[in-house]
C-alpha cells in the first residue's frame, strides 16, 4: 500500500520524501488546485528541484489540478495540465470532466487520477470516468464505510486511494457549497474552503466570536481552544439547543483500522494537509511509514503504538480524532 | 420595474423534485395541485435518501403518466449520492425505463444514461463549455446550472452551448448546498442513521440551523444541507430571459409552491410587476430571500432582493 503525503512547498516535499512517503502530491500557485492559499505551493524552480529530489529517491510526484474551471479562465486549467504533463510527473490528479477530457485527449500517455473532488463514490461513476478518460486511480470521497470501500474495490478495476489522516471533510468533496454560500468562494470555484480573507475574529464581552463572510460561525468563552474556523465545525442553534450541528472540531485518523484497510485492497492511503507545516508532514509520514511497514509484516499482530498516537494527536487539528465515515456509527 | 414580455424567449417553469420527506397522501395532493399550476415540467422522484420508500419508482412512474396526460413534461429524478449496492441497483432500474426523461444527480447515473437523452441536475459538476460539449455528445438534453455559478458563467455557457441543449436555473427555493454520508437530521436528534425513525418527516421544510446571534443560516434535510434563506431569481427575470435561459426551477416547499409558480408565470407574462411579485414571495420565504450566487457574491447575500430587516 502506497503512502501519499502532502507537500505545500519544497521543504515539506523533502520532509515527506525523507520520512517515508511513496508519493507526494503538490499544486501550482493558483486556483487550479484545492489548496489555493497565500504563500503555498510551487513555482517553476521549486517544481524542478522538488521533482528531482523525489525521483532521485524513488518517490512519485502527483500534481493536483482539482478545482473546477469556468469558461472565463478556462485556459488556466489547460495551461496547468500542459505544465504538469511537461514536467514528467507520475500522475495528474483531476476533478473536472472538461479538464479530464482535455488531458485524456491531449496527453494519452500521462497517468490521470480522479481527485476526491471528482465525487465518484460508486462503481458506475468510476467506470464512466475510466471509460472516457482512462483514469488510473480514484481517490474516493470520505462518505463510504470501510465495508463499502472493500465492496467498491471488488466492483471496479480502477485502483482505489482513500484518505487516512488529517482534516475531515464532512460533506462529499466536490459537492459542498457551504463555503461559497458564506463567502462567495468555494473549493470548486476558488480552491479553498472558508478562505482566510473572509474570516474575522472579534473579542466581545460574551466571548470570542468567529465570523465567516459576516456570518457568526462560532462563539466561545475566553480561554476555550480555537481551531481553524471551518463553518461545518461551528456551534449553532438547532431546535433550541446550542450544538455542533454538523460535526465537532475533530480530525480523521484511521491508524486503528489499518489492517482492515489493507485487507480491503486499498492501493494507496492519503495524508491530508498541504497547508500544514514541515514538522507536520515529517511526523505524520514517519508514523504512517512505520505503521504500514509493521502492518504489512504482520497484520494479525498489528496494534498502533501509543507513541504513534501521541505524535499524531500533537499535530492534529482540534483535540479529538475519529475514524469518521469508515465506521458506520459515524453516519 | 415590469418584466418585459416582448422577448421571444419566455423561459418555461419547472418544478423540482420534493426534497423533504412528506407523507404519501400529502405528496399525492401536492402533485394534484401542481399539475393544475403554471409549471410546464415536473421532476419526480426521491433524490435525498434511499431509506425513504413511501413512494416506490412505480408510484413515480404512475405520477409521471398523469403529468404527461396533463400536457406537461415529466422527468424522473434520481438519488444525489449513490453509496451502496442497493442504491446503485435502484438507480439502474430507474435508468432502464425509457418512457420518461431522467435527471442524473450522481455521476453514477451518467454511466447508465449515456447514449440516450438525459438531464444533468445541479449536483452534477458542469462548470464549463468543455464538460457541456462532452456530456452533450453522450446525450445531454438539458442541464441545471450548479447553484453556486452566477450570471457571468451562465451567459458564457449559454453562448457556447451545443445546439439543442437546454439550460435550467434553480430559480426559487432553499439552495441545495451539500451532501454527506451523515444524516444531519438524525444526528441532531441523537439518533443513529440506521435507526433514524424517519425523523426527517417531522420537518416538512427541513430543520433550521441558526447562528449564535439568532440568524437562520442553514437547513438540514437528512444527508443534505440547504440554505435557510430562499434563493430567488424573480428580480433577475429580464436578464435571464435575454440570455436565453430555457427553464426556471421552483423547488417545492410545504406551503405556497403553486402560488410561487403563479407569481413567476405572471411576471414572465407581463401580468404582474416585479415589485408586486417580490412582496408576495417575501411572505412565503420565512427566513428571507437571497440571490448572491447569481450576481457573483456570497450565496446568502441579497443584492437584488434587499430584506426589510437583517
UniProtKB/TrEMBL annotation, chain A:
<dbReference type="InterPro" id="IPR051454">
    <property type="entry name" value="RNA/ubiquinone_mod_enzymes"/>
</dbReference>
<feature type="binding site">
    <location>
        <position position="193"/>
    </location>
    <ligand>
        <name>[4Fe-4S] cluster</name>
    </ligand>
</feature>
<comment type="similarity">
    <text>Belongs to the peptidase U32 family. UbiU subfamily.</text>
</comment>
<dbReference type="GO" id="GO:0051539">
    <property type="term" value="F:4 iron, 4 sulfur cluster binding"/>
</dbReference>
<comment type="function">
    <text>Required for O(2)-independent ubiquinone (coenzyme Q) biosynthesis. Together with UbiV, is essential for the C6-hydroxylation reaction in the oxygen-independent ubiquinone biosynthesis pathway.</text>
</comment>
<keyword id="KW-0004">4Fe-4S</keyword>
<comment type="pathway">
    <text>Cofactor biosynthesis; ubiquinone biosynthesis.</text>
</comment>
<keyword id="KW-0408">Iron</keyword>
<keyword id="KW-0645">Protease</keyword>
<feature type="binding site">
    <location>
        <position position="169"/>
    </location>
    <ligand>
        <name>[4Fe-4S] cluster</name>
    </ligand>
</feature>
<keyword id="KW-0831">Ubiquinone biosynthesis</keyword>
<protein>
    <recommendedName>
        <fullName>Ubiquinone biosynthesis protein UbiU</fullName>
    </recommendedName>
</protein>
<dbReference type="GO" id="GO:0046872">
    <property type="term" value="F:metal ion binding"/>
</dbReference>
<dbReference type="GO" id="GO:0008233">
    <property type="term" value="F:peptidase activity"/>
</dbReference>
<keyword id="KW-0411">Iron-sulfur</keyword>
<dbReference type="Pfam" id="PF01136">
    <property type="entry name" value="Peptidase_U32"/>
</dbReference>
<dbReference type="GO" id="GO:0006744">
    <property type="term" value="P:ubiquinone biosynthetic process"/>
</dbReference>
<feature type="binding site">
    <location>
        <position position="232"/>
    </location>
    <ligand>
        <name>[4Fe-4S] cluster</name>
    </ligand>
</feature>
<comment type="subunit">
    <text>Forms a heterodimer with UbiV.</text>
</comment>
<keyword id="KW-0378">Hydrolase</keyword>
<dbReference type="GO" id="GO:0006508">
    <property type="term" value="P:proteolysis"/>
</dbReference>
<keyword id="KW-0479">Metal-binding</keyword>
<feature type="binding site">
    <location>
        <position position="176"/>
    </location>
    <ligand>
        <name>[4Fe-4S] cluster</name>
    </ligand>
</feature>
<dbReference type="InterPro" id="IPR043692">
    <property type="entry name" value="UbiU"/>
</dbReference>
<dbReference type="InterPro" id="IPR001539">
    <property type="entry name" value="Peptidase_U32"/>
</dbReference>
Amino acid at each position: 500500500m502506497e503512502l501519499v503525503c502532502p507537500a505545500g512547498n519544497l521543504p515539506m516535499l523533502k520532509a515527506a520524501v525523507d520520512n517515508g512517503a511513496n508519493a507526494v502530491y503538490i499544486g501550482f500557485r493558483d486556483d487550479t488546485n484545492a489548496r489555493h492559499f497565500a504563500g503555498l505551493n510551487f513555482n517553476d524552480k521549486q517544481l524542478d528541484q522538488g521533482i528531482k529530489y523525489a525521483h532521485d529517491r524513488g518517490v512519485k510526484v502527483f500534481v493536483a489540478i482539482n478545482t473546477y474551471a469556468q469558461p472565463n479562465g478556462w485556459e488556466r486549467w489547460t495551461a496547468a495540465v500542459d505544465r504538469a504533463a511537461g514536467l514528467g510527473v507520475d500522475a495528474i490528479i483531476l476533478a473536472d470532466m472538461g479538464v479530464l477530457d482535455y488531458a485524456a485527449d491531449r496527453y494519452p500517455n500521462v497517468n490521470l487520477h480522479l481527485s476526491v473532488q471528482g465525487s465518484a463514490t460508486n462503481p458506475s461513476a468510476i467506470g464512466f470516468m475510466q471509460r472516457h478518460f482512462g483514469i488510473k486511480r480514484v481517490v474516493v470521497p470520505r462518505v463510504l464505510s470501510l465495508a463499502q470501500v472493500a465492496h467498491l474495490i471488488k466492483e471496479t478495476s480502477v485502483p482505489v486511494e482513500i484518505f487516512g489522516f488529517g482534516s475531515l471533510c464532512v460533506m462529499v468533496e466536490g459537492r459542498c457549497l457551504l463555503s461559497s454560500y458564506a463567502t462567495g468562494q468555494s473549493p470548486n470555484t476558488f480552491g479553498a474552503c472558508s478562505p482566510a480573507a473572509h474570516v474575522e475574529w472579534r473579542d466581545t464581552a460574551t466571548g470570542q466570536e468567529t465570523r465567516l463572510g459576516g456570518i457568526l460561525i462560532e462563539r466561545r468563552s475566553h480561554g476555550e481552544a480555537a481551531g481553524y474556523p471551518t463553518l461545518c465545525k461551528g456551534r449553532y442553534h438547532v431546535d433550541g439547543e446550542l450544538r455542533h450541528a454538523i460535526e465537532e472540531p475533530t480530525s480523521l485518523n484511521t491508524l486503528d483500522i489499518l489492517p482492515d484497510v489493507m485487507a480491503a485492497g486499498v492501493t494507496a492511503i492519503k495524508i491530508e494537509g498541504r497547508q500544514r507545516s514541515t514538522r507536520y508532514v515529517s511526523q505524520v509520514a514517519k508514523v504512517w511509514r512505520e505503521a504500514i511497514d509493521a502492518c504489512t509484516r504482520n497484520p494479525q499482530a498489528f496494534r498502533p503504538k501509543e507513541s504513534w498516537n501521541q505524535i499524531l494527536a500533537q499535530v492534529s487539528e482540534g483535540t479529538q480524532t475519529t475514524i469518521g465515515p469508515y465506521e458506520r456509527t459515524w453516519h | 420595474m415590469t418584466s418585459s414580455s416582448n422577448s421571444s424567449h419566455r423561459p418555461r417553469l419547472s418544478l423540482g423534485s420534493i426534497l423533504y420527506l412528506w407523507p404519501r397522501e400529502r405528496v399525492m395532493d401536492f402533485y394534484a395541485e401542481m399539475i393544475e399550476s403554471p409549471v410546464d415540467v415536473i421532476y419526480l422522484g426521491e433524490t435525498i435518501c434511499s431509506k425513504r420508500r413511501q413512494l416506490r419508482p412505480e408510484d413515480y412512474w404512475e405520477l409521471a403518466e398523469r403529468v404527461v396526460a396533463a400536457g406537461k413534461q415529466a422527468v424522473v429524478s434520481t438519488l444525489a449520492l449513490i453509496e451502496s449496492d442497493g442504491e446503485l441497483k435502484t438507480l439502474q432500474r430507474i435508468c432502464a425505463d425509457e418512457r420518461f426523461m431522467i435527471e442524473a444527480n450522481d455521476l453514477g447515473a451518467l454511466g447508465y444514461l449515456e447514449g440516450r437523452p438525459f438531464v444533468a441536475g445541479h449536483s452534477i459538476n458542469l462548470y464549463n463549455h468543455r464538460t457541456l460539449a462532452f456530456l452533450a455528445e453522450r446525450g445531454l438534453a438539458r442541464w441545471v446550472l450548479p447553484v453556486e455559478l452566477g450570471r457571468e458563467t451562465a451567459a458564457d455557457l449559454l453562448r457556447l452551448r451545443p445546439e439543442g441543449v437546454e439550460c435550467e436555473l434553480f430559480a426559487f427555493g432553499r439552495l441545495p448546498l451539500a451532501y454527506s454520508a451523515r444524516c444531519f437530521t438524525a444526528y441532531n436528534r441523537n439518533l443513529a442513521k440506521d435507526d433514524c425513525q424517519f425523523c426527517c418527516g417531522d420537518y416538512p421544510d427541513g430543520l433550521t440551523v441558526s447562528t449564535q446571534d439568532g440568524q437562520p443560516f442553514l437547513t438540514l434535510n437528512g444527508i443534505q444541507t440547504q440554505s435557510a434563506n430562499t434563493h430567488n431569481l424573480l428580480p433577475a427575470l429580464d436578464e435571464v430571459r435575454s440570455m436565453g435561459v430555457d427553464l426556471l426551477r421552483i423547488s417545492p416547499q410545504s406551503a405556497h409552491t403553486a402560488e410561487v409558480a403563479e407569481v413567476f408565470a405572471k411576471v414572465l407574462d407581463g401580468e404582474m410587476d416585479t415589485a408586486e411579485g417580490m412582496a408576495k414571495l417575501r411572505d412565503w420565504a420565512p427566513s428571507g430571500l437571497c440571490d448572491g450566487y447569481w450576481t457573483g457574491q456570497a450565496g446568502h447575500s441579497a443584492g437584488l432582493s434587499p430584506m426589510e430587516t437583517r
